[in-house]
């Protein structure tokens, strides 16, 4: 019995010694990191929505963040991600005295302008990613004819799965062909009209979408500068007639 007790006691002492050594090692490493790794250089990547100073002040927000190791560990253990239009931040050590803060922006496909002055931004899945009073001028497409009564981030646009698929497919095709409109407008039948500076393109439903865009691409050079509506809503393999209806000028 005495031998067993001695063995247990020796095992406990060995574990205590190991733990103490680890703690001592961590303390030594911490002291070395504090004195040897002062943070002097901060780079910011991934966004032009905020200045480098704004991002640095947001991430390095306490007196201990002047240390490279501390800044890295803090933002790994307690990441910040509640900034407008930013999904997450990654802090990377690039040297003993330098870090890079990578801003991962929220994906945005388009936006809806609300009557209260807010903008509802949504992604390729039709999910709302941001609600903000700030307008981001990046050529995102505006969507009209869609109303969100009580919008929340994460909520899907109230247009139905089929229409979300139609909208996202349409925008991808328009982006691919570099003919993004100023506005995509929905009517009461969920038919879409594309609005450009001087003319509109009435697409109607999603039937024959790619064929409609292909025909529009061939016709657009002929109507450049004209005011009116290119009607493609009735286009089909049986009905290939396409009409450009010029706007009538009202003379007072």
Automatic annotation (TrEMBL):
<keyword id="KW-0131">Cell cycle</keyword>
<dbReference type="GO" id="GO:0051301">
    <property type="term" value="P:cell division"/>
</dbReference>
<keyword id="KW-0472">Membrane</keyword>
<keyword id="KW-0132">Cell division</keyword>
<feature type="transmembrane region" description="Helical">
    <location>
        <begin position="12"/>
        <end position="36"/>
    </location>
</feature>
<protein>
    <submittedName>
        <fullName>Cell division protein FtsQ</fullName>
    </submittedName>
</protein>
<keyword id="KW-1133">Transmembrane helix</keyword>
<keyword id="KW-0812">Transmembrane</keyword>
């Amino acid at each position: 019995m005495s031998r067993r007790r001695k063995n247990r006691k020796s095992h406990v002492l060995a574990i205590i010694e190991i733990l103490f050594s680890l703690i001592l090692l961590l303390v030594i490493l911490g002291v070395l990191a504090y004195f040897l790794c002062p943070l002097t250089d901060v780079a910011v990547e991934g966004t032009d929505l905020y200045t480098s100073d704004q991002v640095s002040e947001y991430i390095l927000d306490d007196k201990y963040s002047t240390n490279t190791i501390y800044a890295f560990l803090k933002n790994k253990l307690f990441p910040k991600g509640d900034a407008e239009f930013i999904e997450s931040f990654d802090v990377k050590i690039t040297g003993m005295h330098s870090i890079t803060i990578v801003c991962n922006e929220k994906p945005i496909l388009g936006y809806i302008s609300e009557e209260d002055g807010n903008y509802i931004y949504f992604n390729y899945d039709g999910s709302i990613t941001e609600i903000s009073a700030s307008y981001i001028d990046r050529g995102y497409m505006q969507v009209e004819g869609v109303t969100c009564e009580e919008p929340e981030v994460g909520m899907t646009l109230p247009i139905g799965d089929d229409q979300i698929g139609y909208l996202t497919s349409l925008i991808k095709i328009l982006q691919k062909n570099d003919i993004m409109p100023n506005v995509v407008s929905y009517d009461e039948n969920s038919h879409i009209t594309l609005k450009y500076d001087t003319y509109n393109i009435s697409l109607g439903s999603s039937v024959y979408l790619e064929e409609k865009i292909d025909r529009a691409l061939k016709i657009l050079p002929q109507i450049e500068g004209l005011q009116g509506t290119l009607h493609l809503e009735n286009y089909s393999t049986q009905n290939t007639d396409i009409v450009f209806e010029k706007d009538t000028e009202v003379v007072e």
